[in-house]
Amino acid sequence: MDLRRGRGCGWLGCRVINLTVEVLLPPFFRYQGYEGPRENFGGKFFTRGSHNCNKPLGFLRPFLLISAVSAGLFFTRKGTRGPRDSRGHSAILANFCAVCSGKQNQALPYFSYLSPSMRTPLLVKYLLHPLIWQIPVTEKKIFLTFDDGPIPVVTPWVLETLKQYNAKATFFCVGDNVRKHPEIYAEILKQGHRTGNHTMNHMNGWTNFNKNYFQNIRECEEYVVSDLFRPPYGKIRPTQAARLKSNYNIIMWDILTHDYDMNETGENCFRRVEKNARPGSIVVFHDSLKAEKNLRYALPASLDYLSRQGYTFESIA
User: Fold this and answer.
1) Per the residue annotation, which of 147, 148, 254, 287 is the catalytic one?
2) Is 309's pLDDT higher than 80?
3) 160 and 30, same structural domain?
4) What is the pLDDT of residue 267?
5) 286 noted as active-site residue
6) Secondary structure element (H or E) that encloses residue 230, with its range
7) DSSP 8-state code for residue 247
8) Active-site residue among 129, 286, 287, 304?
9) Are residues 138 and 258 in the same domain?
10) CA within 13 Å, CB half, 33
11) Are residues 146 and 291 in the same domain?
């Protein structure tokens, strides 16, 4: 996705709408495949009768669609351009339509709208303050994190690369991958890195009800013993965060490299780190097959650059 920053009020409006779409709208939807009792959180807005209903109530749907079209047209005007995809379409419009039609799995994470040169905005950190976005430090320390592993080939290569720079990191592990590859997980711990819970099956907090989501996290606890948690896709509801923060430190990020994007290049992933790294930054990479191509360029380049800038690399305590 080729994202461009808007200007002035248009730019701010883009970000406000992004947060509105992705933080406020999800509770008003019912998701496919759920067959348990409805929860109280927004329950009165859910449609009745069908377990395959991904639509809001009729009166809400037209309003959201009109809002989507209006926002898309406004922010793609020449004077206040919002983010656009490679075809020149409004990313906001595309996401509104995906949400309004119930196809949230096709909606991008709200961080995908941000310019590649941007760190996570202060407004986002403030609105979602129970989550940890950056580590307060007084020295030049960077906190590298790796999501979705462990898997053969990629994770061992990451460990070997980190060892060359005497770098420690934090691995947010999918429980099912730990179950399949316990020897790789053991090697992560043996080398002095930390691990965190990333759910058992990489579960999206928005498209699953709390009961199922918490159960998936508990299943992961059988394989990953840690007080750190990162929600897959960065998607977690306020109710879920409120429940989890009593047992977990919920770790988000300051810099998202987009290494998982197969349309990206490793060079661009590295540039995001180069331009945005600050003391205490939490940087997200992925030790996954999808990210491998970009990771093999961006990780060594980032380690080399940051080392020359005087940074050290630590795991999240």
Assistant:
1) 147
2) yes
3) no
4) 97
5) yes
6) none
7) T
8) 286
9) yes
10) 5
11) yes
